[in-house]
Design brief:
Protein name: Oxidoreductase
Low-confidence stretches: none
Strand content: 15-25%
CATH superfamily of the largest domain: FAD/NAD(P)-binding domain
Shape: globular
Organism: Prauserella flavalba
Keywords: NAD, Oxidoreductase
Mean pLDDT: 94
Radius of gyration: 25 Å
Largest sheet: 7 strands, mixed
GO molecular function: FAD binding; oxidoreductase activity
């Protein structure tokens, strides 16, 4: 498809990258980026670029990636709970200042011949263009005004973004218990000798700390100074005496955006305007820039806009929806994070890495053997072998009260134990349906139940959700917890055991 004039709404990473790639692919096309903000004003702190994203950017535009890598700083990852810490390598992960990221992308877009116009809000229907790329972010006015079938889901937890004027040695995940409740930071270094501090908490803690009032009192363009000053004391050890830096910093809830359609007429959505995935999987910039690659390829390979948009969406939607599902699981895990603070930090790190089902236990063991070995020893009070970890986990004995199980896989229901079975179809184990299961389990325990068995469909999403629901009941109600699933998902079930989501597993009869 040959395009004469293209307009891009939004001068963020996705919009600028799409503009550059389109201009490189079609040099005769007049490409203009319309950014409502000032060129010297940006919001946010650091942006992370993982190895997989870097490979895709290198294939699409090696020159831009080279400058991004040169501007970034590589770091590993540490989890700290109390006075215990555990560190894992995170090869090729880099942190880049958002200001520097945008400067690199602006420079390369203009070098390719893209015009960038700042300071004016433009709408799709007022632009004289054959193609309008709406990359105007999570609050996209284009999406809201158009026929895209938008659906927005708001999370339970609250978070804020802030920064600090020094570079941490590693990315760090660290919870701190306060008089109000638990606050957790996800912090990481980025270029320029600074660090991003993202801080999360639950609504009850947020209200007890009085941050509902400070949020209401903070104007939209200002930062919540009350929260920042308090959080400086909470994370004083991590901050090493540095203050927290605000930049329109205020508490908010994550919005997951989904659209039934990514295009309408000559307009196509890109990045956060089309879809979002929770920040705990580091996805916003990644998704937007990968969208840009796919969109430009589709435009070059199809005869008209409708065909190109259909190809773009058919190519990108499966990958986006897969990441959104991983992000949904990760978001639920983080929103319930304080319930896991009794775990040793090594087992907590395994729980973190396997939380969304994207990192198999054996693969994590291959990249971080010291962490997984320590977690396995805590789980079984024995040293695991160097290979066949999943089988070893399943074959370990368990002593529960007066009962000893020779292995963690039950072949039949244990004699003499009262264990009701839950088969509830629950999509959110920490939502209302999960609350109902917990209440039923609590009543059953009061009436003498020794534990609970969780069963249901054999598909992988159902088994992963079952493990999460079992974990919640195990933490809040107690008792012996058994999760049923097919033998083909033995690796997921083994990860659930090491992560303390359950005590025993049972293979369905068809797979036994």
């Amino acid at each position: 498809m040959q395009i004469r004039r293209a307009a891009v709404l939004g001068g963020g990473p996705g919009g600028l990258y799409a503009a550059r790639l389109l201009k490189l692919a079609q040099p005769s096309c007049d490409v203009v980026v319309h950014e409502q903000g000032d060129p010297d004003t940006t919001f946010g702190f650091g942006v992370g670029l993982a190895a997989g994203t870097q490979r895709k950017l290198e294939a699409a535009d090696a020159d831009t990636l080279r400058d991004l890598v040169a501007a970034g700083c590589r770091h590993d990852m540490t989890m700290s709970v109390g006075n215990r810490s555990v560190r894992v390598r995170n090869d090729r992960l880099i942190g880049v200042a958002r200001t520097e990221l945008l400067a690199v992308l602006q420079r390369h877009a203009e070098k390719a011949g893209v015009r960038i116009e700042y300071g004016t809000r433009r709408a799709a229907d007022e632009l004289d263009a054959d193609l309008v790329v709406a990359a105007d972010g999570v609050s996209s006015a284009t999406r809201s005004a158009g026929d895209f079938g938008e659906h927005i889901e708001v999370g339970r937890g609250l978070y804020l973004w802030c920064g600090a004027g020094f570079a941490l040695p590693d990315a760090v995940f660290a919870p701190v218990e306060t008089e109000h409740g638990v606050f957790v930071t996800h912090a990481y270094p980025y270029s320029g000798g600074r660090s991003t501090f993202l801080i999360e908490t639950d609504e009850e803690t947020w209200r007890r700390a009085g941050f509902d009032a400070s949020t209401d009192a903070t104007p939209p363009d200002d930062s919540d100074i009350t929260s920042l000053r308090y959080l400086e004391t909470v994370f004083a050890e991590r901050l090493r005496g540095h203050p927290l830096i605000g930049n329109r910093t205020r508490w908010t809830r994550f919005r997951t955006v989904r659209c039934e359609r990514w295009s309408s007429g000559r307009t196509v959505l890109l990045g956060d305007a089309a879809h979002t995935a929770h920040f705990s999987v580091g996805s916003g910039t990644k998704l937007a820039m990968e969208d840009a690659i796919s969109l430009v390829e589709a435009l070059a390979g199809e005869p008209d806009a409708n065909a190109a948009f259909a190809r773009y969406e058919a190519t990108r939607r499966p990958a986006v929806e897969r990441l959104q599902e991983l992000a949904r699981r990760s978001q639920l895990w983080w929103e319930s994070f304080p319930s896991r603070l009794d775990l040793p930090v090594e087992r907590l790190m395994v729980a973190y890495m396997t939380r969304a089902g994207n990192v198999p236990l054996a693969r994590f063991a291959a990249t971080s053997p010291e962490v997984v070995t320590a977690a396995a020893e805590q789980y079984a009070h024995a040293t695991p072998p160097g290979r066949d970890l999943v089988d070893w986990v399943l074959e370990q004995p368990l002593r529960h009260g007066d009962t000893t199980f020779p292995r963690r896989v039950l072949a039949s229901r244990p004699d003499g134990l009262a264990m009701p079975t839950f088969t509830d179809a629950v999509s959110d184990p920490w939502g209302g349906a999960g609350d109902a299961v917990v209440e039923r389990a609590r009543r059953a325990r009061q009436e003498g139940a020794d534990g609970f068995r969780f069963a249901g469909p054999d598909d992988r999403p159902a088994v992963l959700t079952r493990l999460d629901l079992a974990e919640r009941v195990r933490a809040e109600v107690g008792g012996l917890i058994v999760v049923e699933g097919p033998a083909e998902l033995r690796a997921d079930l083994a990860a659930g055991l090491v992560s303390a989501r359950c005590d025993l597993v049972s293979f369905t009869e068809e797979e036994a």
